[in-house]
Amino acid sequence: MGGSLYGWLRNWMGIENISMLMYDDPALFEDMVSYLTDYFMELTAPVLKKVSFDLVYFFEDCCGSTGPLFSPAIYDAVLDKYYKKLIGFYKANGVALALVDSDGKVDQFIPHWLGSGFDIIFPIEVGTWGASPMQLREQFGPGLRMMGGVDKHIIAEGEDAIRAHLMSLKPAVDAGGYLPIPDHRIPPECSYQDMLTYIRVFNEVFNP
Questions:
Q1: What gap in Å lies between CA 169 and CA 178, rounded to an integer?
Q2: CA pair distance 113, 71, nearest whole angstrom
Q3: pLDDT tens for residues 56-102?
Q4: What is the pTM (predicted TM-score) of this model?
Q5: DSSP alpha helices (H): ranges in 6-122?
């Protein structure tokens, strides 16, 4: 857990207040982001001297069902340089990969995240907007690494539906850099038997 430059502030202030702050007092917003950047580096530096990590995880949750909760322009003006500073710090200390965690429709932010140095996008929430790892890979190229993308509601629809859905994800898996998992919790309509069927079909498709 390497930090949060928006998600923590959003939790502390609420979405409306943090959104208004970005416009009413952008200097204060940037000062808060800058402070958090220094805080996480100071907090984790002693640990990184003693422990090796493969991945650093950033919690942000900065998108909803229709897209980002703030504009890419604000991202570029404020957040980009601090992500670069923080990710650069972790990678200089031997952490190979940086993951950004945001629910929602993240398409608009993906090129900005990649430009800041993030390696993995998580959780590729399918949602009502129908996010597809295959489409995202086609749009942003083979360097895009992802986790998620499994429509959890398919699990209760039976073996044929599960297999068809997982087979649609197989080309992205075979290309590398993508781990197919359901986003968030399995919905309550999925029975224990449904889950066992999903696991069996998953292994048949991806681990034959």
A1: 9
A2: 13
A3: 999 999 999 999 999 999 999 999 999 999 999 999 999 999 999 99
A4: 0.94
A5: 7-13, 15-24, 26-48, 72-74, 80-92, 110-116
